[in-house]
Design a protein that fits this description.
This protein has 2 domains: 145 residues, Rossmann fold; 161 residues, Rossmann fold (3-Layer(aba) Sandwich), CATH 3.40.50. The protein is globular. By secondary structure, it is an alpha/beta fold. It has 12 helices and 11 strands.
Length: 320
Amino acid sequence: MTLANGHLKDVVSSDALSRDDLEVLLDSAARFALKPLSESSFIAGESVVIYMNKASTRTRLASESAVAHLGGTPIFVRGDELQIGRGETIADTARIISNFAKAFIIRTYAHDDVNEFAKWASIPVINALTDDDHPTQLLADWVTIREVFGKKVSGRKFTYLGDGNNMANAWMLMGARLGAHIVIATPPGKWAPNNAVIDRAQKIAREHGGAIEISHDPESAVRDASVLYTDVWMSMGDDESVRSEKLRDLAPFAVNQKMLDLTASDSIFMHCLPAHRGQEVTAEVIDGAKSVVWRQAFHRRTTIQALLFHLINKDLRGTV
């Protein structure tokens, strides 16, 4: 998180946004869903650089269309297209990009690289996914949840099932800030979520009336849940040598109809995509009546649009 003159300059983590910031962003995303061109001249004549080291479908399309809907020009670059791929420093690259763009969206592997870009860039930097976090996805998830259930989360349980990865981290941090009861169910050991993130999320939850629960029992975790969420088991950058072990250990955490039947009667199924049917989720569930995955994907644009609008406008205050 980078604060500048009392406002939040960057969103590099799901922990960067205050409760008030989240309310502003989620309300604006809902507005942009209904009126996507309501701020169509906001950055007219300006550009936003979208830098991606990881392959992308939703994030790239959402980012480019968000910029266009605000009247700007998206400039998409891959890591191998910049001099940074030949040894130029992040600091130098960030300074150069700041001269040409109104904001910088980055999707990469190392979270420290995003922090370094934010340190040296004079323009807003948005983390569009790292190995540690995925704040733009969580914003899209929560807009979708509010469309279904409204803003009241009291009495509802939100369960994430599977690998304790960047999505598990993001779910804990942002869910805690929104006062939700978040259950993260993973195998014990190496596939469990990061202990430091758990500790941080539990502290935030206590401050905002939420709860963070870590479980290794998938059936108990999903019972009476309002949201059942999962992610791929092998993420980009995962070591292929652990594939067979990881798939074996995660098999009991697969989302199938039996798991879905244990959830609340009005529950929904969510997945950040891409999905591997027959692995972390069955086709019956992801293509079924309770699935809202396509609406989640749609809101990747509305939430990135909201982030760009409010960061550039210096409306967000961040966390202390």
